[in-house]
Amino acid sequence: MPIEILQTHKLLASCEQALAERYAVHKLHEAPDRDALIADLAQRVRGIAGGNVDAALMDRLPKLEIIANFGVGYDSIDTRAARARDIRVTNTPNVLNDAMAEITMGLMIALARRIPQADQFVRQGKWLSGSFPLQSELNGKTVGILGLGRIGKEIAGRCQAMRMRVIYHGRHRQELEPFVYYSSLVDMARDSDWLVLVAPGGRSTEKIVSRQVLEALGPAGRVVNMGRGSLVDEAAMVEMLISGKLGGAALDVFENEPQVPEALFGLDNVVLSPHQGSATHQTRQQMGALVVKNLEAHFAREPLPSAVV
Ligand code: GLV
Description:
- The chain has helices spanning 13-22, 34-41, 55-60, 79-84, 97-113, 115-123, 150-161, 185-190, 211-217, 234-243, 281-299, and strands spanning 4-7, 24-27, 45-49, 66-68, 88-90, 142-146, 165-169, 180-182, 194-197, 222-225, 248-251, 270-272.
- It has a 7-stranded parallel beta sheet.
- α1 runs parallel beside α11 and α5 packs across α7 (150-161).
- It has 2 domains: 4-95 and 282-299, NAD(P)-binding Rossmann-like Domain (Rossmann fold, 3-Layer(aba) Sandwich), CATH 3.40.50.720; 97-272, Rossmann fold.
- It starts with a strand and ends in a 10-residue tail after the last helix.
- The protein has 11 helices and 12 strands.
- It is α/β, with parallel strands linked by helices and 309 residues long.
- It is elongated and about 70 Å long.
- Bound molecules: glyoxylic acid (GLV).
- Glyoxylic acid binds at residues 71-73, 96, 277-278.
């Protein structure tokens, strides 16, 4: 009998195919009656592929052994509940670092040089009657990185290539890193022209980028959120972008995505992106392969390639 797993949301086609070749896959997101499906599978499901797993779902699947999340961020999984129930949790780190760092630079340059507006300027024929206004550049500016993890380090390297000065804030100073560490996020924001957020989401970082942090960044400062919408006091950020108390924002993630505060749509000092940090063919293939590798390793009783619990 094949091992039965539950898939909680749509995955990349190649990943779904690889799962289907190895397991009996039940798609929760396609079930007309999710409760009935869970009840029916309760004694059989040993693995979950995907996120959005809370303690209640774990309790309804008493044979569950592993949750293989598609994504490096696993804030949609209650890891504390998983640990308490001896359920392993895996994520997909590293394979997305380059894609994340590339789009971060892209959004920063898009915001600094107003690339979306410049494109519209040409398309709308406005160039025929005058030049596009002068903009700013990254060169020579200070970027404060919140969360100097694997992705943060790749962003730091690319910012250095732009001749920016890199500083960082996180839970700990990293002795081997050459960048100046700030134990206070507010202090770092005060000294930054750009504040790049790549910290994980979840309770411990909720609204860590508070109004006070944004005020410290100030009217010339720009915030770039590549982590999670939950990191920022979004209401304060929107209000400050409108009033000019905050200089600008490049946002790939939002508090209630795909809902985006409408107030942002009319703002010229904002670049919006639909949570696509890792969304390249190359990277998503590798993320899918890592989901499958983790499940395979678990059921073969081998060490997990990327366990978080
Ligand atoms: C994307 O947001 C991820 O966590 O991989």
